[in-house]
Amino acid sequence: MHNTYRIITYGCQMNVHESEKIAGMLEEQGYCLAAETETPDVVVLNTCCVRESAETRVLGNLGILKKAKEQHPAMKIVVCGCMTQADGAAQRLQARCPFLHAVLGTHNIYRLPEVLVRPAGKTYIEIGGDTAIREDMPIARTSGINAWVNIMYGCNNFCTYCIVPYVRGRERSRERKHILNDIRRLVQDGYKQITLLGQNVNSYGTDLTEKHSFASLLQEISAIDGKFRVKFMTSHPKDILPETIDAIAQSDKMSHFIHMPAQSGSDRILQSMHRHYTASEYLRKIDMIRNKIPDAGLSGDMMVGFPTETEADFADTMQLTERVRYNNLYTFIYSKRSGTPAAVMDGQVPIAEKKQRIRRLIDLQFTIGNALAAESVGKTYTVLCTEYKNGKCIGETNCGKAVVFAGEQNLVGQFFSVKITQNKNSKLYGERL
Ligand code: SAH
Ligand code: SF4
Ligand code: F3S
Asked: Per residue in 51-88, pLDDT tens?
């Protein structure tokens, strides 16, 4: 009989990938993934705290796990991830949930195997300490033909609404030899899509003793042999350079899909957010991308209801959204994050106001997304089949559009020319040529 584990992941792709590392460590210790119907021996909650609601969900789940632990007292529950890193959060978790086996911070997760073999009975807390990058973590990948590769950790930007720099620490870039070795191996192992991860990939390498730029990293990755596609996220608009766009345009491996969050269209709000660009500077970068990569697909993040946001500020956000014409827009209602400067700013916007603004923004984006989808009908794209589900192939075009087409499981991982035949409410259907 093997010991079993379950990992519950909240938050962004960084966490999804970190959970693969947690799984890697557990599998190295002989644990197997628990079946859905089974009560696992170890449960790890890999948490997010970017918004209050993310924390509420974790606490809700801990309530359910408490009951499960009452039925199965040997089960060890560990909380890790961003939520543990906020000031005093670990102690609060320990006090509120004394049944936890351990609380491990984002720099301490590699200690999991050692902490798990300790006797049960008290909550072990390990937070903070050495932030050096650990290159020796095993990874149990779970994302099919897509492989996530961290190129950097942490963030230096301190946008005034955001908790990430406080819980993830300062920017630390991985040495490029490690990144390139990882990608070479992944391609040899058959992965077809590599997604580079960092909170601000455009500042890759600036912290290394031997300075490197993101653009030159992309060139070196593109020179690796094999047929595969490379994506990245997230790109901070203030740091995106023409040479990076050139590196994408000149590569046969780089996806033409770029995620570049604007957050707001109002210069006054952008300044208060500490984003370090104006709406027109952002638009100039978008124009540069579209000039160099005419078929670029764009996505972004947009927030409504940041403190003091007026109807006029929101109108600027609507205008920017209309001008950019994003393929996808991730919309957020500003949520107060204690510990960040914006949480104590005057002029918090009433929730009813925030809700009606996000509704209008979502409606606008729906119209834009649908119009863009309609424009792609009749066009042919290079599509990577990423998944086979419900008897259909699902693929992604080189500019990031999802397409459904007929085919079998064995097409997953292959590239095809697909002609778009139909747009149903922004969902694209196509035919393999
Ligand atoms: N590093 C990325 C963003 C990471 S957080 C970047 O700079 O673009 C992902 C998204 O969560 C952000 O883009 C922002 O739109 C949203 N977000 C962060 N803090 C938030 C808060 N307090 N309230 C609402 N949305 C927030
Ligand atoms: Fe947060 Fe800003 Fe850093 Fe993104 S760039 S993680 S929004 S502080
Ligand atoms: Fe990601 Fe949430 Fe942490 S968005 S970096 S998991 S706070």
From this structure: 888 888 888 999 999 999 999 999 999 999 999 998 88
Sign of the Cα pseudo-torsion (262, 268, 269, 273, in order) = positive
Tokens in use for 83? 């939520």
> Which ligand does the CA of 55 lie closest to?
3
The reply to whether ligand 2 has any atom less than 6 angstroms from the CB of 200 is: yes
In angstroms, the CA 325 to CA 345 distance is 31
pLDDT at 332 over 90: yes
* CA–CA distance, 310 with 313 (Å, rounded to integer): 5
The pLDDT tens digits of the residues spanning 169-219 come to 999 999 999 999 999 999 999 999 999 999 999 999 999 988 889 999 999
Atom of ligand 1 nearest to the CA of 330: 15
- Ligand 3 atom nearest the C-alpha of 10 is 6
Whole-structure pTM value: 0.95
Q: Pick from 263, 12, 88: which is nearest to 159 by CA?
A: 263
265-298 CB burial, b ≥16 within 10 A, e <16:
bbbebbebbebebebeebbebbeebeeebeebbb
Structure tokens given for 252 = 């046969």
